[in-house]
Write a structure and sequence with these properties.
heterodimer; A: 716 residues; mainly alpha; Neurolysin, domain 3; 4 domains; five-stranded mixed beta sheet; two-stranded antiparallel ribbon; 29 helices; 7 strands; globular; B: 250 residues; binds zinc ion
Chain lengths: 716, 250
């Protein structure tokens, strides 16, 4: 009996044992992390730890900088440039965790913190980039650069560092500096208003429909519109206000609401109404109009460029990119323009044929595009998404992407089960190199949830550097794939698969990197280059050989049939004329707005500017640019000015790079794979991006492979 | 951190807080296109629960069998102590009714055999009953046993039958908990067994502790009216409270 008592007491102790928790008064950001692989101790990090860590991090960062500046020794590469690499450790540590979690596992407190921190941090970084004493040291080393011995990586680091100071205005005199600061603050105010206006305009329109207006809409769409109406009714301030939504159906110019309506509704008049509400956002001559704001921003940017010694804002921006001048960008865009428009005309003819066969008497217009292209899709590309999904379980697709990188570079992935991350859906793997050595950590967080931002992205919890010993990275991919229901495995659409491969391409860029200085590691390159490693990997996902190896039915285990693969690949060419034309039109518009000189930028009428610009290129009436000026938030509110072309530029690069494997006759050609790793994936930004590409391909990129991939080469 | 990275980081920080988006649309105008994020605590908790279950399944699938076995024994035990308060009370109800250790043993055995049967059947998906109904009847069974303790001095013959049928019911309750926990398809039977073993250990622990408390601390025989009646009344009241509560939630 005593024994039993003992055993049961023991069992009780085991059962009631609480996991030992860290002292909540200790801020984990102030500790060194002795966790496995230095994965952040997510369980110990609480919302209230961020702000003190940010504050102390900024302080430490500034005192690190002071130490460099106050060094009595003459400036050298190692006591200045290299030391700069070592500054701001704590700030980097807390920033990485915070910026990741504020997106992938956020809450109202973190969102509020984000708003609070944003101006604090930009003021902080201004202090560093405008530090004159620091620049003096950098400049002294740079002036002396031909006399000192540096590796090519160090030379690039020196040049880049100096360039960043110069681009923030370090070479300007006091008067010019003051002007630039003034312009910057004006632009930032205008950008904010642009975004707020756009938000108000997008939320400001609603199409309230009766039961009799729902022709053609499917049940799910109707239910969502009815739900939208009842939500509006709940949120209405007065009862009277709410009454107008009673038993009604609401559609809005938000894409998630508009596209389904434009696709399904057979009521042409209503399609036109909703479509116009979308393209007229910011152009309604009311208090939330964006025309004048856009023109003002373009003017200020041109003036700033002039002060900095550039012909235009585009010249200033591109100086830092892979394509170095507006001429190069225009050259690329206009080369693609013609085949895209040509294809779009064929698509219009296809749609018109469907409309004519229906006995319609109108000519297909912009608001008919979604409705009739869907009919063409069903007729010509008839692909049943639900027939494909059972072959694409998340585990199979992961297996596929892992084995792809295994065949390319010999990498292996081992899932780790005893590390707790920030959410139980986030999974973690150790990545090992060909020779079995540790290469990095990969975290995949794939399912959508309500406290995660939309979209998909790659980021890191720890960077790579070889400066003070071998530091390997912790990379994360976040996606928004639908979570599995019940005991079924998570089944992806083919679009999801492409997204997964894309983000995994970024992850490989971040994992295979092997550079000395952390700031040049992985994905630190220019914007029109960094999508190359990600978009390149997408090509393997649609390679029949690869697809067959991982796409096996989750119940029967049979491989995806050939005719399904054919249909799938064929469908990727659907509507490409439209997609490319609207994208290129927006890119050209972006370039036009930013290639003007300060003189040309005075007194511009935004609508006149836009319509003249689009007329010049010959945009079809049936297609609007992906973004019109008044809702082009990327360039007037975000940071994509003179940069919207980046995605198609990277697409040209990746299609051409993959063509090399096609030419070799083996998508896993050993020699090429190794070359790809050595010239691109491992290099970070240690060399000029154009050189990296040329090193791999032996020449600059050509557009023909892309035209073929997108079905714009007239072959169909 | 170099100025270069600093500036880029700062820009990203202000614009999107993210390193690289898949599609430029995704971040820059996410709020404009999708509206602000809406935090529904219930939804977030439900998603978290589902994710936890998936994580447990992944972790289990990667474990050797002995480890899984241990985990399910532990889970079974925890479903009695400390989580299964209603099962504890039921077992205590049986405990206070018995004059002899032998009769207690038989009742507990009947209870165990019965809940093992339904646990296996329910886990296999052969028997199903709505969880909230099961919960209500379990509360009622506690009241029944406790009231019986107060009314009858001796254990009646049909008592075993009553205990057996309540055992069937409690088995369904265990099964509901077990499905929440997630039982992997491979090693199904052995892990079910492990879970059941854990439950038995839990029950045994309850009895032993109760026995020792009364015998050693109070130095009384467990079958004395001084203890049996008040204890049973308390148990009955708690059971009644649960019954009412669960009926209203129904
Ligand atoms: Zn990307």
């Amino acid at each position: 009996m005593r024994k039993l008592v003992f055993i049961s007491a023991l069992l009780l102790i085991v059962a009631c044992q609480q996991e030992s928790k860290m002292d909540p008064n200790i801020n984990p950001f102030f500790q060194s992390w002795d966790t496995a692989y230095e994965v952040p101790p997510f369980m110990d990090i609480k919302d209230e730890h961020y702000m003190p860590a940010f504050k102390k991090g900024m302080e430490e960062n500034l005192s690190d900088i002071d130490e460099i500046v106050n060094n009595s020794e003459a400036p050298t590469f190692s006591n200045t440039i290299e030391e700069l690499e070592r500054t701001g450790k704590l700030l980097g540590k807390v920033s990485r965790v915070f910026s990741n979690l504020a997106s992938s596992n956020t809450n109202p407190q973190l969102q509020e913190l984000q708003r609070e921190l944003s101006p604090m941090l930009s003021a902080h970084y201004d202090k560093i980039s405008l530090n004159e004493e620091l620049f003096k040291r950098v400049e002294a080393i740079w002036q002396d650069k031909d006399a000192i011995e540096l590796t090519s990586e160090q030379r690039k680091l020196l040049n880049d560092t100096r360039k960043q100071f110069v681009r923030s205005g370090a070479l300007m005199n006091e008067k010019e500096k003051k002007q630039i600061t003034e312009i910057n603050s004006k632009i930032s105010g205008l950008s904010t208003s642009f975004g707020q206006n756009l938000l108000a305009e997008t939320n400001g329109f609603e199409l309230i429909l009766e039961n009799s207006d729902l022709d053609g809409l499917s049940e799910g769409i109707i239910a969502a519109a009815s739900e939208a109406a009842s939500q509006k009714m709940e949120k209405a301030e007065t009862k009277e206000e709410g009454e107008k939504y009673k038993d009604k159906f609401v559609f809005t110019p938000h894409r998630s609401s508009m596209y389904p309506f434009l696709t399904e509704s057979t009521r042409r008049d209503l399609r036109e109404q909703l479509y116009n509400s979308y393209v007229m956002r910011g152009d309604n001559n009311n208090e939330t109009d964006n025309k004048e704001i856009a023109a003002q921003i373009a003017k200020l940017r041109a003036e700033r460029a002039e002060i900095m010694g550039y012909k235009s804002h585009a010249h200033f921006v591109l100086d830092d990119n892979m394509l170095k001048t507006p001429e190069e960008v225009y050259d690329l865009l206009t080369k693609l323009w013609e085949p895209a428009v040509k294809r779009a005309k064929v698509e219009i003819a296809d749609m018109q044929a469907v409309a004519d066969a229906e006995g319609q008497v109108f000519e297909v217009a912009a608001w008919d595009w979604w409705h009739y292209s869907e009919k063409v899709r069903k007729e010509k590309y008839n692909l049943d998404e639900s027939a494909i999904k059972p072959y694409l379980s998340l585990d199979n697709v992961l297996e596929g992407v892992f084995s792809t990188t295994n065949k390319l570079w010999g990498l292996s992935f081992t899932e780790i089960f005893d590390i707790d991350l920030y959410h139980p859906d986030a999974r973690i793997w150790e990545v090992k190199d060909k020779d079995g050595s540790h290469l990095g950590i990969f975290i995949g967080d794939y399912f959508t949830r309500s406290n995660k931002r939309g979209g998909a992205w790659m980021s890191s919890f720890k960077g790579q550097s070889n400066l003070d010993g071998r530091e390997r990275p912790i990379i994360v991919n976040v996606c928004n794939f639908p979570a599995p229901v019940g005991d079924k495995p998570a089944l992806l659409s083919f679009d999801n698969v492409v997204t997964l491969f894309h983000e995994f391409g970024h992850a490989m860029h971040g994992t295979l990197t092997d550079v000395t200085y952390g700031s040049m590691a992985g994905t630190s390159g220019p914007r029109d280059f960094i999508e190359l490693p990600s978009q390149l990997l997408e090509h393997w996902a649609s390679e029949p050989e690869v697809l067959k190896s991982f796409a096996t039915h989750y119940e029967t285990g049979e491989a995806i049939p050939d005719d399904l693969i054919d249909k799938l690949l064929n469908a990727s060419k659907f509507n490409q004329g439209f997609i490319n034309t609207e994208y290129l039109a927006a890119s050209l518009l972006d370039m036009d707005w930013h290639s003007i000189s300060a003189e040309q930028a005075q007194q511009l009428d935004a609508n006149k500017f836009e319509s003249e610009s689009l007329k010049k290129y010959g945009l079809l009436d049936e297609i609007a640019p992906r973004y019109r000026t008044t809702y082009f938030a990327h360039i007037f509110s975000g940071g994509y000015s003179s940069g919207y072309y980046s995605y198609v530029h990277a697409a040209v690069l990746d299609s051409d790079a993959f063509e090399a494997f096609k030419e070799a006759g083996d998508v896993f050609d050993a020699e090429l794979s190794l070359k790809l790793r050595e010239t691109i994936y491992s290099k970070g930004s240690t060399e000029d991006a154009m050189d990296l590409f040329v090193n791999f391909r032996g020449r600059k990129a050509i557009i023909e492979p892309l035209l073929k991939v997108r079905g714009l080469d007239g072959s169909k | 951190m170099r100025v270069h990275e600093i500036i880029i980081f700062c820009f990203l920080f202000c614009v999107s807080f993210n390193a690289f988006s898949h599609n430029p649309e995704d971040f820059v105008i996410a709020e404009i296109e999708r509206g602000q994020m809406n935090f529904e605590n219930e939804e977030i908790a439900a998603e978290y629960g589902a994710a936890l279950k998936r994580q447990r399944a992944r972790r289990l699938a990667a474990m050797p069998l002995y480890k899984k076995f241990y985990i399910f024994v532990k889970a079974g035990f925890e479903h009695i102590i400390p989580q299964g308060l209603d099962h504890i009370l039921f077992v205590l109800g049986l405990f206070f009714s018995c004059i002899t250790f032998r009769s207690l043993l038989w009742q507990v055995t009947a209870f165990t055999v019965a809940h093992s049967i339904t646990l296996v059947l329910a886990a296999q998906g052969l028997v199903q009953l709505r969880g909230d109904i099961v919960e209500i009847i379990i509360a009622l069974s506690i009241v029944w046993i406790a009231v019986e303790n107060c009314l009858y001095k001796e254990t009646s013959k049909w008592r075993y039958l009553v205990v057996f049928s309540f055992g069937l019911l409690h088995g369904l309750g265990f099964a509901a908990l077990l499905t929440q926990y997630g039982l992997p398809k491979e090693n199904f039977i052995s892990l079910l067994l492990a879970f059941n073993i854990g439950v038995e250990f839990g029950q045994l622990a309850v009895l032993v502790i109760a026995f020792l408390l009364i015998k050693l601390v109070l130095r009384k025989n467990w079958y004395s009216n001084q203890i049996k009646i008040p204890a049973s009344i308390i148990i009955a009241l708690v059971g009644l409270f649960w019954f009412v509560e669960r009926v209203f939630q129904f």
